[in-house]
Amino acid sequence: MYISISSFEIANDMAFEVKEAYRNRPHLVDNAPGFVKLQVLSPHENPNEIWLMTFWTDEESFQVWYKSHMFHDVHNSIPEGLKLVPGSVKIRGFEHVAE
């Protein structure tokens, strides 16, 4: 299994709107080949920080999704006016080792 973890920090007062956008997301990724699940997290100590964990059967499936037009389409649901802390966007890939 391959896991992609993305994180970013919201620079303006829009954490509530961003979290609502994820709660009401269009679910475009759900039918992508190799997709398993998505989890959206926000740490208690910094509610302006968002972590996205996507689980995939393999890294190739994630890469196909990441380069697809649908990946870019999901970003159309980003709340208008959102500003991120410069340099806060990170995307990392992980091998799932054990549960």
Tell me, rounded to a whole number, the average pLDDT: 92
Q: Which strand order does the major sheet show?
A: 2-3-1-4
Cα distance spanning the termini: 11 Å
Structural class: alpha+beta
Output the CATH topology.
Alpha-Beta Plaits
The total tally of domains equals: 1
Shape: globular
Q: Which parts are unreliable, with pLDDT below 50 for 5 consecutive residues or more?
A: none
Give Rg in angstroms: 14 Å
E-strand count: 4
> Strand content of the residues, in percent?
25-35%
Number of helices: 3
Order of helices and strands: EHEEHHE
Q: Give the % helix.
A: 10-25%
Named CATH architecture = 2-Layer Sandwich
- Biggest beta-sheet profile: 4 strands, antiparallel
Which CATH top level class fits? Alpha Beta
Tell me what you see in this structure.
InterPro entries: ABM_dom, Dimeric_a/b-barrel, Heme-degrading_MO. Residues 2-91 form the ABM domain. Pfam families: ABM. Keywords: Monooxygenase, Oxidoreductase. One of its GO terms (molecular function) is monooxygenase activity. The protein has a single domain, classed as Alpha-Beta Plaits. The longest helix has 9 residues, at 15-23. It has 3 helices and 4 strands. The chain is an alpha+beta fold and 99 residues long. It is globular. The chain has a 4-stranded antiparallel β-sheet with strand order 2-3-1-4.
For the structure shown, list the relevant keywords.
single chain; 29% strand; alpha+beta; Alpha-Beta Plaits; 99 residues
What is the compact description of this entry?
The protein has one domain (2-95): 2-Layer Sandwich (Alpha-Beta Plaits), CATH 3.30.70. The protein contains 3 helices and 4 strands; from the N terminus they run E-H-E-E-H-H-E. The protein has helices spanning 15-23, 59-66, 69-74, and strands spanning 2-9, 35-41, 49-56, 90-95.
